């Protein structure tokens, strides 16, 4: 565990912050964090009491010497108690130096004083922003170390870059604010976290987790580990926290695939979530609320309309356009046969992707009746006259591509000069931000189709699987008794350590089930990263015909 900390770079970040702190150096941060990692590994609890017990009674003299603990410090109860105080003070130094606004964590402050201290987490003071950035760097460094280990043992060899992001509640040990007596909570920055579908909130913080996911069809087995962690006030900076989790993955050279998120992130402003995520190379797979389904937006984009996140021909039949309008969540999860048929029949009316995103994120789209492979018939784009050809009715491809098999739209008589751009131009360009506020609804897989169901529900189920591990019987990040230290800095550090151990557990199980052996001890000391298998590019159009 100590070698893992040494390799992660976390200790260098902490030591740099402690360098200018007056007074004696005290117990090294390496000792305290190693004790916490051991406590989580053996007991599942990220408490200083368990860390002290393991450091005092469960290590050999040689191991304690390497941790900076002298042999005489464990000889008598008095000295053991003194060692426990050193451990507590060492952890307090770490959390104090990283806290933008250090406060008394032992009593409930008046509401006005607490509000002033909590504002330090939200203001634009450069020093406060820097300290929050260091906290996030520590979380990222710990999780990134386990990613290096996963790549070394081949656990991400078949990973195609698919990611699922979810927010989970980190319940607080303390009570919420008492408005009647004008007393704040001991957790100054905690708030109410509401999980989807639940009207009961959890008082605490929100932990945003990125998961290595795998949509269908899968190339091979992977280890579904946590790729990133961000702890924040519930409901704030939702989109920016997701981008914070994904940015280090790009810096590691990992592939970018599909990103599936729940409706909390769908509601984030496009400039804080959708646009930067697409700039990183991810393809969005989203879900919608009841009042967001169906046609989206009041103003067509160059004639095209957005229906459930996909730009569509403006002449699509109203019955198909409104097939999911006001559809309940239950009906969306299991649509009846009529609704599913209408959803599938939308496909020919979707705009064709003519060119994928360039270096600026711009894509080119074409009318579904244009080009060499039209999917609808439209009087505004008459088909070229060609000699009659014999159709092999036993060939499904020939039958489906024949003009008689394509739906025909009914176009009103409009002068060419008044037609929308999509109806007479060869293609239209969609630049990042062109859609305005409805950009947040745009996704790359048609909603509720088979391809969407092969990605979104699968990745979301894997999200629930990692939540089951992180909130299981061995490690439970949702139980406040397992992380009793006060303050948001302490909660962030302890949660990051618990996620790190959970990742190591997942990798150990992966090695046992695929190789029949435990995770090698050398994985902790040597984290040189081999070149991973790079997945091929995602298909962007119709595949070429197979040779007969």
TrEMBL record:
Disordered, as annotated region: 371-407, 524-548
Classification of source organism: Bacteria, Bacillati, Actinomycetota, Actinomycetes, Kitasatosporales
Chain intervals with Pro residues compositional bias: 532-548
Organism: Streptomyces kanamyceticus
Protein name as annotated: Transposase
Domain of life: Bacteria
